[in-house]
Amino acid sequence: TTIVHIVGARPNFVKAAPVVSALRRRGAHQAVVHTGQHYDDRMSAVFFRDLGLPTPDVDLGVGSGSHAAQTAALMVGLEREFVARAPGIVVVYGDVNSTIAAALVAAKLRIPVAHVEAGLRSFDDTMPEEINRRVTDQLSDLCFATSPEAIGHLAAEGVSPDRVHLVGNPMIDTLLANLDRFDVAALRERVDLPERYIAATLHRPANVDDPDTVARLVARLHEIADLVDVVMPVHPRGKAAFERAGLGDHPRVHLLEPLGYLDFVALVRGAAAVVTDSGGVQEETTVLGVPCLTLRPNTERPITITHGTNRLVTESDLLQTVTKVLQGRESEALLDTTPPLWDGRAGERVAAVLSQWSR
Ligand code: UD1
Ligand code: UDP
């Protein structure tokens, strides 16, 4: 039977790559369906090139829209695809709208669903991703967890423990597999990078959708830039709002287009610290040992705080925390304190379970 992977948004590609390649090594029959949720070259195709992912078997071209419009279009396209392909199992990744749409369509067609990165919880329903996570896990026959606390979260929601497999973190598989390809020096030849800098990425609705919030964040980022250069690849979601609020009018704020995976992680690796609201970047900085300041009131990835370099910051304590980190007064985690099973073999563990299931 065919194992069908559903990917659509930037973080999905990074998580699917090691699972797809581990299944390929096992000779599994598989297909990759791209929903088209992300479609710009810099948000999508560059990841397939960087990660050596096979060209998707199909791109549904769904594109952007409100949550309802986008999720509905995703479901219509995926239903057609699943009926035509009759997958033995559908594999979904992370917490984006493509994830929940695929899980819901597959469940109603009685196709088994496997969720990679199950059981993460922020307990904050103002994040659309939290709703996607909870619903996807309820619909999943297999829940692949990246960290131990996920098991308790799933149990508390009535997910039977025999559905849950603690496998580690496929996003970290991708990071470790590419460690010698993250080359800040090579990046410097193409992008004008200051010697010492903070790398910033912001795209959460709570940070980038409201113009007043954006204006306050721009003021804070400009204060940071008075101390140290700030390099920010700008996610398309916040681009217009940040520009309208004058981000980049500061001579030490360097705005870039979204970077491809290898360039972005090189940027992170070379940074004095990272300011972010990304989920994946909290995990990557934990393994790279780069201080991570997460501009959010909570995180679904607390293990990056207990075992890593992450800390939560608010807009009002951001500057102070950056200052402290730059003075090196905070000790950073070492590679050997990284979370259990973040060892580069998660994709292999997922593939082993999937191969059993889809025989
Ligand atoms: C989505 C995910 C989020 C994830 C993020 C990763 C949901 C609900 N959200 O957020 O969890 O952290 O991806 O990056 O699934 N746009 C472009 N070009 C593109 C893609 C998007 O210009 O290739 C712009 C469009 O204006 C679009 C906006 O970005 O309306 C938002 O895109 P969307 O996919 O709805 O959500 P993200 O904010 O990217
Ligand atoms: N990333 C990238 N280029 C960028 C910003 C992020 O390649 O300009 C990578 C990042 O290293 C991680 C993934 O994209 O592997 C995370 O995606 P994002 O922050 O968009 O989503 P989230 O993890 O918040 O859902």
Automatic annotation (TrEMBL):
This is UDP-N-acetylglucosamine 2-epimerase (Non-hydrolyzing). InterPro entries: UDP_GlcNAc_Epimerase_2_dom, WecB-like. It comes from the Bacteria. Gene3D superfamilies: Glycogen Phosphorylase B. GO terms for molecular function: UDP-N-acetylglucosamine 2-epimerase activity. Its EC number is 5.1.3.14. Keywords: Isomerase. It comes from Nocardiopsis lambiniae. Residues 23-354 form the UDP-N-acetylglucosamine 2-epimerase domain.
